Amino acid sequence: MEQEVGAESRTVLIVGVVAIVVLAVATVVALVVRPPAEFDPGTPEATAQAYAQAVIDGDETAAMEHLTPELQEECTPSELRTAWVPETVRVLLAATTIDGDLAEVDLTIEEGGGLGIEYRQEVTLNMEHMGDDWLIAEAPWPMEYCAEEG
Q1: CA dihedral angle for residue 56, residue 62, residue 67, residue 70, rounded to 10 degrees
Q2: CB–CB of 134/44 below 8 Å?
Q3: One CATH from 3.40.50.2300, 3.30.750.24, 3.10.450.50, 2.40.128.120 for 44-136
Q4: Per residue of the chain (150 residues), what is the pLDDT tens digit?
């Protein structure tokens, strides 16, 4: 009789562990294949998303369109082209603060493969509202140093 109770306990334990593993895998898959959020056009979040996607896609021209004219003079497409952006990068919107015609969009840049995050960086995109658009006004990730005076 004692052996039957032990066997039942092991079976319940095994079923429980398998259920937990299945839930964990399902959660990871759901997070990985989740489509990006959609932001209203003309918002700082939409500008940040479009800029980040252009950087990830290697589209320097599209990325540069999200910079103020002054910053476009200081930061060139070649600087963006030579910036290191790994294939496994993810850009997550953390927070947005708007104060009149100025905005700060906080992003989390995650790099890593498989199930783990190997590197995480917090960055802020400082923007100005110009006309109908929000444009990045200070050297952004991944070319943070392009506008520094040497």
Answers
A1: 130
A2: yes
A3: 3.10.450.50
A4: 455 556 677 777 777 777 777 665 655 554 555 566 788 889 999 999 999 999 999 999 999 999 999 999 999 888 888 888 888 889 999 999 999 999 999 999 998 766 666 888 999 999 999 999 999 999 999 988 886 654
